[in-house]
Amino acid sequence: MRLEWILHPAMPYAEIAIGLALCVYLVVSVKRDLRAGEARLGKKLAALETDWQAKMESLDERWNELSQISSVLVPPQPPRSGLNLNKRSQALERHRRGETPPEIAAALAIPRNEVELLVKVQRLALSRMDKPSSRAAGL
Fold first, then answer.
1. Which tens digit of pLDDT belongs to each residue from 19-74?
2. Are residues 6 and 31 located together in one domain of the fold?
3. What is the residue range of 54's domain?
4. Contact criterion met (CB below 8 Å) for 118 and 88
């Protein structure tokens, strides 16, 4: 035990050296694990990007297909309705003058079937007005 005086002061330095060596080993192993994790994540990211790109291309193709279909299937403009009192009176006046329903519809920018309906309703109203007067005359 004569070396105790030599080993005793060297012991803290040896402990520090061993601790530093362990720290260096831990840092190196952590870096290695991080690089391996980065590589795995890089591969996953590349696979996801490839999958994402394929899905985006599929969606673009579908979008183009649907836009072509939708341009073909555009619904026609609905006929303008709105037979207000002014147009109604003008249509009836033109009918009294002898114009046909297609001519009246074109002149007033209203659908032909609305003009025909208006003329029919007017005829019915006039025929009902004539019937009571003929009944009263017969009594």
1. 999 999 999 999 999 999 999 999 999 999 999 999 999 999 999 988 888 777 76
2. yes
3. 1-74
4. yes
